[in-house]
Each structure stands twice: as C-alpha cells, then as structure tokens.
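Entry 14. Ran structure prediction on the chain below.
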Amino acid sequence: MRDFSSGRAFRVWGFHVSHSQLLIRSARQEEVVGSQNIDLRFTAVFYGEMSYLLWGVVITRPSEDDLRYLQIQCGVGEDQEHHYYCLQSGGKRYFVGAAHMRIEMNTLAPLETGFDLP
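Output, structure tokens:
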C-alpha cells in the first residue's frame, strides 16, 4: 500500500451494512470549475474506529504496535483478505479493517455514493 495525504476535509459519507462498504469522501466544491470529490472506498469492511469528520488525512500502514492492538480489539490478524489502514488526522490515529481500499477522483453528485450494489 502506498501512503496517501490530503489537506482537505473528509467525512464518512456512507456505509452499506449488508455489503460491508464504507465511503469516506472529501466533497468537491461545486462552484469551482474542475473540482472533484476524493473518495476513499473500503470494501469487505470488518472493523472501523474513527471520527465521522477528518480535517486533512494521511493514510499509512499501521505500525507493529497498532497491529497488535487491532488484533486484540478485533480478533482478526492481517492476511490476504484482511488488511488494516491507519488514517491520521488532527494528531489522532484512526483505523479501518477491510479487504480492499481504493482512492477515486470523481464528480458524483452529493447523494450519489457509487456503491457497487446488485
């Protein structure tokens, strides 16, 4: 996983429980031409520990101490299907456990989540 960093504000935009999908979005400024959303999309989510609002975010791999803490908290260790992501914001560290994460730029409208649902 490569690190990601942005000074924009992000918020939990949606969580689809039955499909375990989490969307954290920095919404585009509609009045600014060419502005795009930055979507942090997590799939097969099995753990979440975070604030609903993040003022700037840096995403990194959790430290070894973090991974020990997360395994105790969640009962799930990292393997091919279970990964942990560390979201740092405002001097605090938050965590998401998911099979996958992708970062996507788009111009979806505020009520559009882009969740892959049947």
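Helices lie at 64-74. Will compare against last week's run tomorrow.
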